[in-house]
Design brief:
globular; 17 helices; transmembrane; single chain; NO3_transporter; transport; transmembrane helix; Growth Hormone, Chain: A; mainly alpha
Length: 436
């Protein structure tokens, strides 16, 4: 990770030098994770302000649950579509279009004056979550097989960091507008315009300064018909659906926690808005390193034990994540809750990285479709978890406890699943990188 070898400028990189901006590969790497980082400001910018929105619009617990579900449900379908578009149009045009489209409801949510209108805008904002699929796809195109897991994990982790920073920064932006003389109902609406404008800026940056592949954009190169991908080929591989479940158990719970954490700390532990946002932000801040560690370890395990080893690693991480969530649900102490949160967050985010260290090796001709299906699994996990937090008969603590049990069970399913194509076949021989 500390040096860059002298490979062709049109070839995928064999190493990841995060301090480099040389070559289209590294420029694209940095632009894609930064873009994904700001997508979180649009996607979850309203989450740390939900206490204010709740009071302003008079939302009930069930309505807040519906809002949480809406914020991630649209992403399920968006990720399936976006994955296919990456295989056909290319990541550059796909990301540019998504950013422009996503900025509209982010800016427009300030027009909400009722539960119904707020719910519709929150649903529309959910399409921004599909940005993750493009980030992982684009990174996979820029790096060689032995480093794909690490590159994907670092890009995804640093991008996911936006979820934590959003929880810290948006309450400060809100407070700044209140300090400038705006009322609280006015301030949260104006605050959401900022991430919307940023998305438009990043749309220009992505279109202007990235390429689909090291060799050029899809429109500039000749692609063989068999490399253009088939959604159904990706969907017919059972391993895709095992990863679909696994990602629902890690990333699905991450976005659920991003949605509910500030409100949970605010109402259950009586924290003020800024403190609740800070604690929720710490959860997301672990993406700075934890997801990257998951990808790095998965690459090293894969080099020695192949896909089977990667599968066992993912299973172990999910199991420990489930145990940590159960412990978090059982504590009444704020200090112990934070400790438990840090514990399960570490394994959860490592599992995110380990999952997408496997994804590029499922089907090299359909990386976008596999990535989209697995990514959609993450959002389906968030939707299902959201129903627990919506229920009037289940407390937030009970919801976390049930989630911990399910995550542990999925860890067992992953443990008994076979990810290698042939027994004793090395990962290097299982897959050759898809390059035009």
């Amino acid at each position: 990770m500390l040096s860059q070898n002298s490979v062709s400028k049109k070839a995928p990189l064999e190493v990841l030098n995060v301090f480099s901006l040389k070559g289209i590969q590294m420029k694209t790497f940095h632009i894609t994770w930064i873009t994904f980082f700001f997508c979180f400001f649009g996607w979850f910018g309203i989450a740390p302000l939900m206490k204010i929105v709740k009071d302003d619009l008079g939302l009930t617990k069930a309505q807040i649950g519906n809002v949480m579900i809406a914020s991630v449900s649209a992403t399920i379908f968006a990720r399936l579509i976006i994955g296919r578009l990456c295989d056909t149009l290319g990541p550059r045009l796909t990301y540019t279009g998504l950013l422009i489209l996503g900025s509209i409801p982010v800016i427009g949510i300030g027009l909400s004056n009722s539960y119904e209108s707020f719910l519709l805008f929150r649903l529309a904002i959910g399409v921004i979550g599909a940005s993750f699929v493009i980030t992982q796809y684009h990174t996979s195109m820029m790096f060689a097989p032995k480093i794909k897991g690490t590159a994907n994990a670092v890009a995804g982790g640093w991008g996911n960091l936006g979820g934590g920073i959003t929880n810290m920064v948006m309450p400060l932006i809100f407070a700044a507008f209140v300090g400038a003389g705006y009322t609280k109902p006015e301030a949260w609406r104006i605050a959401m315009m900022i991430p919307g404008v940023i998305l438009l800026v990043m749309a220009f940056v992505y279109f202007r300064f990235t390429k689909d592949t090291p060799a050029g954009n899809f429109s500039e190169i000749t692609r063989q018909q068999q490399t253009k991908g088939s959604f159904w080929a990706a969907a017919s591989d059972f391993r895709t659906w095992i990863l679909f479940l696994a990602y629902g158990a890690c990333f699905g719970i991450e976005i659920t926690f991003d949605n509910v954490a500030a409100l949970y700390f605010s109402e259950y532990f009586k924290c003020d808005l800024a403190t609740a946002g800070l604690l929720a932000g710490i959860f997301g801040f672990m993406n700075l390193f934890a997801r990257a560690i998951g990808g790095i370890v998965a690459d090293k395990v894969g080099a020695k034990m192949g896909m089977r080893g990667k599968g066992w690693l993912l299973a172990g991480l999910l199991t420990f994540e489930g145990i940590g969530i159960i412990l978090f649900a059982q504590t009444n102490s704020l200090a112990m809750a934070v400790v438990a949160m840090l514990g399960f967050a570490f394994f959860l985010k490592m599992a995110n990285g380990a999952t997408y260290a496997i994804v590029p090796f499922i089907d090299s001709k359909n990386v976008g479709s596999v990535s989209g299906i697995v990514g959609a699994g993450g959002n389906l996990g968030g939707v299902l978890a959201g129903f627990l937090f919506k229920s009037e008969n289940i407390t937030y603590n009970q919801a976390f406890f049930y989630i911990g049990l399910v995550v542990g069970a999925i860890g067992l399913v992953v443990a008994i699943s076979r990810f290698e194509k042939q027994s004793q076949t090395s990962e290097k021989l299982q897959l050759e990188p898809e390059m035009a």
